[in-house]
Amino acid sequence: MWSVVKSVLAALLGVQSNQQRQEDFSSGKPTAYIVTGIVITLLFILVLIFLARFAAR
Amino acid sequence: MHSWWRWLSVISLAMGISQAQANGWNMPIGVTDTSGDIYGLHMTIFWICVVIGVLVFGAMFYSLFRYRYSKGAKASHFHEHTGVEVLWTVIPLLILVGMAVPATATLKDMYDSSDAELDVMVTGQQWRWRYEYLGEDVAFTSNMSTPRAQISGEETRGEHYLLEVDEPLVLPINRKIRLLMTSDDVIHSWWVPDLAVKQDSIPGFINENWVKINEPGIYRGQCAELCGIDHGFMPVVVHAMEEAAFEDWLIGRKEAAAEKAMGVDREWAMAELAERGESVYQSICSSCHQVDGQGSPPAFPALANNEQLISDVDWHIDKVLNGVSGAAMPAFRSTLNPVEIAAVVTYTRNAWGNDTGDVVQPSTVAEQISE
Predict the structure, then answer these.
(1) ipTM exceeds 0.85
(2) Number of domains chain A is built from
(3) Which stretches are transmembrane (chain A) (predicted)?
(4) Of B216, B241, B261, which residue constitutes the final position of a domain?
(5) What is the residue-wise DSSP string for B90-132?
(6) B349 and B305 in one domain?
(7) Does A30 touch chain B (CB under 8 A)?
(8) Residue B89: its chain A contacts at CB < 8 A?
(9) Residues of A in contact with B108 (CB under 8 A)
């Protein structure tokens, strides 16, 4: 689970080591990455909304 | 080694910037708190860029020189370096956030026009500005006062060439003034660099902005949105006064307006109207219909020897009052007062060989306006 989150975060930032990528492709399920990706993206949007609300006060 | 020339270049760069300030190459610091904030942001971001530029290009040129092939440098072959990759992603992120925080604070402040003590409506029109002091019953039009002869090169250019008007916008200092911007025809933009205001004036919309001027003075600007043939000839001049002087000016304006209105009821002589009309014609009409009344057909028809104009007074008055829909001729019913309209109509009916002998009285025009 943690390795999936770590990979998704690395992808969002645009950095990923080759070794980690090889592991992800050999062991993980694609659905796990897609769902985690969507959830983290939504969280990111929520953080931005919160920051904008905070700044607009 | 050679660190002396690095310092020399830094010092000369700094000198170049203060020189640019003196030459007017840099943006002005201006005379409002907002303009000072914007200038501060600009310089902060500029110096961040300078530091980044020096570090990045310095590292690049140093590496190119120090590890060059002719000195036997061997390239190291490796894929990915997560540490460095994270570093060059996170550092710019922090820099951008660091710049966004003060910039957002300034933007928020710029858009907060609440608690204004004076409202001024600014209306763009091809090609002049109209100012209306809301609730004060004072309104006037501000036309460029640079003579046409200077533009065509027949006279030498004055000190404030193309940046001078017959009636500047007069504002008090130390008071928050809300500017409400709109337009009668096309999109204009009211721009005064020293006040850090550049706001589009759009037909059918009212945009808000505000200023609080710290120092009395005369501040000049221009229309900043291409709006037609005379876009370059509709300058903005703001005269910022001490509060007491502003109050005196406002009372003077109200008295003058009352006097002007009185002129509507009396009978005017032909010569009086023609003289007044000529000055109105020069400042308002001549940019399209030309000083000699020949116009520039087909967009701007000639007034001299115009048969329809000569034969029909009411038609003539109506066109000046209401404009011509679908053509460039604007409506002047709110821009000019009845005396000015009567004067300019009388003038055009008797100039350049239009010898109609007609005298149009201000009272006639006032009647036609109220119909």
Answers:
(1) no
(2) 1
(3) 33-56
(4) B261
(5) HHHHHHHHHHHHHHHHHHHHHH--TT-SEEEEEEEETTEEEEE
(6) yes
(7) no
(8) 13-15
(9) 55-56
